[in-house]
Please model this.
Amino acid sequence: MGREELSFIIDHIIPKVYDFAYVIAGDELAAEQLVVDAYTVFIIENKDFLSKEDLDLDNKSHRKSFQKYLYRELVREVYDLTLKRAHLLSANNQELGSEFENFYNLSMFKRGLLYLKEIVGFTVSDLQEVFVLDRYQVIEAFYNAKHEVLDSTTSSSLEQVWK
Amino acid sequence: MEVASISNKNANLISAYVNGTIDAKDISLAEAAIGEDRQLADFYERKLKERDFLRQLIPTPQSTMHSLRDLRQEITAVNEEIYPLKKLNIFQRIYRFLTKPVITIRY
Model:
């Protein structure tokens, strides 16, 4: 794949990767830096493979599956970098507003997991690849994260929902 | 709504079905249970509402045009610096392989 083809594909994915980075970093500037660094690391590690790959961009299903693969890989890189910079990023989280307070009280791992599962629609096996975990570990972490968020909301709001 | 009489096994099955953590082989079992049992159908509805409520508690950031423009510029710069302009043909790949050191000794 040449540079133009890669740029074309990556252009569609970058906003989604940025959104993921923002959700776990909780800061615009940090998220931007995470995406650029993650992308740089990914390209350095995979440029030989990517430049050899033949990709039929006109084929919709090829393009979609390749975009999904790239997105998952970049999300994994962003998450790896987040772990390495956790001590810097936790300070940023304190500046967040109260609208999603319960969510931002979760660890970065649980935030990323909940976001990818509930908003992006990742399957358990996608999550296993991103977080390098066994199936039972992903499911356990998901249920824990979910209960942490729901339990910290007022019981009256939940009762309202169930009515 | 009375949920106390639902067995743990059924409750877990429906929860896993709603959360998408269910094993593929159990999907038809869960769907049959929801279709046949009124109480389980109610429990399923309740779990769906709980899931929707949970989704409201998770932020869905919308990147601004400004931040995206900056980001795209930086990504383009990374591509220009690191990524080859064209796909390498077989001779270029052989050349790169032969000119790359097999081992590097660090002093």
Observations:
- DSSP finds five helices and no strands in chain B.
- The interface with chain A takes residues 1, 19-21, 46, 49-55, 57-63, 67-68, 70-72, 74-76, 78-80, 82-88, 93, 96 of chain B (CB under 8 Å).
- The mean pLDDT of chain B is 81.
